[in-house]
């Protein structure tokens, strides 16, 4: 969801002076380049992969989606700065989503580069491995949709599934699981790995405080807020975790944001404050809806809210976005429960919320 300001689709990045998704290896600081790689989806055009040049080779923050066009572009972009896949020493992956993890793990295992991932992503990877053998049954997202009161949307998601199984090679386990915070010495640089659960349980950001930059993954995005609640297995209080993680980033120095999606942005403080205010506003809207309507499911509340920067009605969204909206609304309502402002009762047609 967008949160005001310049739309992602029109944003110019200051490191390139061009649209942030334009092809290139754009220098954001001495020895650090941003390489946007394409994504096969309409909502997000690209993912930024960051290349850090060190004494022992290259460190990449994220790897992109394992599709031929992204692999070819990464190869071409690395060669433009005098490097290649064989120079990659390690991938520090912010989280397990396929546009960040899959090309990293494929290249890492092909070229002997270490792949590092947050330990709290292990359950999701294990689920994907079971799915690659057709041993997982129906998509676990359908159960989450049903708890949101969105049975019809769950049926549409199931009907639209193409039946293709995940490729095991795209989801190989990492060489190192990150557990807690730690510092990586990557030759001439120290990167502080900070656990920032919320978007996913094992999300990490990496701060180069000496350089004044934050490799922010999907945690702090300059023009949108990441999806919350769209993760399996479901995590408890994903929005509460996300907001607490934003507060953790706010405790760091004010850093330039190097995001996974969108342009480089000047201030982590400014953006964190905007994101926290945005979600407090959404929480207030959710609470007002529950108070007005009585006992309701997440889907009912989601239909009362506006979506995207244009405040589109729920019915204007495509079915995938409707499902995402219902799950994100549930995350907001669950935080209201934790704050003691709403009660929740599990029912066969979904969790029902009532103001207290």
UniProtKB/TrEMBL annotation:
SMART domains referenced in this protein's UniProt entry, alphabetically: Lactamase_B
Domain Metallo-beta-lactamase stretches: 46-261
Short name of one Pfam family: Lactamase_B
UniProt xrefs under InterPro entries: Metallo-B-lactamas, RibonucZ/Hydroxyglut_hydro, Sec-metab_biosynth-thioest
Gene3D superfamilies tied to this protein: Ribonuclease Z/Hydroxyacylglutathione hydrolase-like
Protein name: MBL fold metallo-hydrolase
